[in-house]
Amino acid sequence: MIIAFFSGEENVSAFSQEQLVWVTIVAGFALLLGVVSITRVSVNSVRQKKKDWPYKIVLLVFLAASTIGAVFEGTERGTVYDWLFQNMNAPMMSTMFSMLAFFIASAAYRAFRARTIEATILLITATIVMLGRVPMGQVIYSHLPGITDWIMNYPNLSVQRGIIIGAALGAASMSLRIVLGIERTYLGRS
Amino acid sequence: MVQRLTQLLSRIDRRIVFLVVSLSVIIPLIIELPLPIPIAPESRKLFERVEEIPDGSRVILTFDYYPSTLAETEPMSVAALRHLWRKDMKIVTLSTVGTGGPNIADRVMATLAEEFDKEYGIDYVNLGYKANYQAVLLGLGKSIRSIYPTDFYGTPLDSIPLMRDIDDYGAFEFIYIVSDNGIVDYWIGLVNAQYGIEMGAGVTAVMAPKFYAYVRAQQLIGLLGGMKGAAEYEELIGHKALATSGMGAQSMVHIAIIVFIILGNVSFFLGRRKS
Predict the structure, then answer these.
(1) Do the Cβ atoms of A91 and B243 come closer than 8 Å?
(2) Which among A86, B4, B27, B75 is most buried, taking Cβ atoms within 10 Å?
């Protein structure tokens, strides 16, 4: 793929495209492997009546319903899969995610303390951004959105750039280690 | 007196915290607060760029999000779609999220298609989902047909009028990403960097700080951050909808959290002074 990108030669390019198609096919089978794996683990839990085994039955029933529905009927509007997704999966996932607001409020009250100078700076900045990112901030103090934009575009941006560049360098060096055979822990070797 | 106050402030039951958060969400949803929506420069840039795209152009609109973040991301998709269809653009949607991404796209597109009198296959196409997003994003740059031989409904691309003369990114003027995960990095790194196609993104509020760097580097034309970003876009297109009505609730929850932080710190300092 690297050669295809730089050479632009037609045969190399076609070969590279073929590899990409194969990657999507193999990835599809990896998803299937995940389904098989979760089925085996859940069936074993139910058989051995392990902790929370009744929940595994619910999982297996809906896994079977959505899989059978999708295989025989497809996934578009009006199908069993789509009904399960729109009316059960989506509301449940949204509910789980929205519960974060309650836990964040509780955790902020208990843990967000100005114990040190650094914590105080973080606390003040967070308060400004929290207010500046909602319309009420404009009502409280008309310059708050501007101050928030400045925080996001200067201190935040410089730190984010550092993180992005650091992570990219880390990923590149790790890839090189794997390609050169120096890094073998992913194969279970030391 | 101080001791009692310290004790009172440091022992607020979490059920009270939960109740206050609940009321902060519910009350503003029932009694709408008339709040101004200040527009962030990043949202305005995205809006203005889309305005500059010639009417009738072809655009990719992605639905790269899980149903858990629908409250933030769906209003963005709806506002973006409304803007794009007002300019009569031809839209190709796809999703790199298997868990329902194409179904969300299907529902949103169909609902707005009815409103704008758009026809599937002529005005828009839903390509659906394919596994392994890196391979998909790279592969689409060479041949859309090899990655997506059929659309979401299993129709071969060659029999879809809109797709007949489209086979790579070169056919598109712009990519409008709506996402709740790290896929935006790959859109930028694999598609913007290699194929040079312009893109803008709408992301969840927690993700937004990271992408300011890409906006400044002009790898992203503009950025919508969270429900506020969606509300800003609704304001810009002049169609206030779900995100705008959620701004009151979001404002009140933020204020409630700040009040709890202040109460926690007051009790912390009073307690420390005592000891």
Answers:
(1) no
(2) B75
Position B273 scores a pLDDT of: 75
Per cent of chain B over pLDDT 70 is 99
Identify the CA nearest to B24 among candidates A101, A147, A123: A101
Q: What is the pTM of this model?
A: 0.91
Is B130 in Cβ contact with A94 (below 8 Å)? no
Q: Name which of B100, B205, B261 is nearest A112 (Cβ-Cβ).
A: B261
> What's the rounded Cα separation, in Å, for the pair B167 and B146?
9
pLDDT exceeds 80 at position A2: no
Q: Which residues of A touch B107 (CB under 8 A)?
A: 77, 86
Q: Above 70 in pLDDT, residue B216?
A: yes
Give the pLDDT band (50/70/90) at residue A5: confident
Task: Give yes or no for B103 touching A (CB within 8 A).
Answer: yes
B110:A77 CB<8 A: yes
Query: Tell me, what's the pLDDT at A189?
Result: 66
Domain residue ranges of chain A, discontinuous segments joined by +: 114-190
Contact A105 B35 (CB under 8 A): no
User: pLDDT digits over B88-102, tens only?
Assistant: 999 999 999 988 889
- Distance in Å, alpha carbon of A55 to nearest chain B alpha carbon: 20
A112/B152 touch (CB, cutoff 8 Å), yes or no: no
**At A97, which helix (H) or strand (E)?**
helix A90-111
Q: Give contacts of B 108-167 with A, CB under 8 A.
A: 110, 130-132, 134-136, 138-139, 142-143, 146-147, 152-154
CA distance A23 to chain B (A): 6
Per-residue pLDDT tens digits for B3-34: 788 888 878 899 999 999 999 999 999 998 88
* Rounded Cα gap, residues A138 and A131, in angstroms: 8
Give buried/exposed letters for B78-105 (b at 16+ CB in 10 A, else e).
Answer: bbbbbbbbeeebbbbbbbbbbbbbbbbb
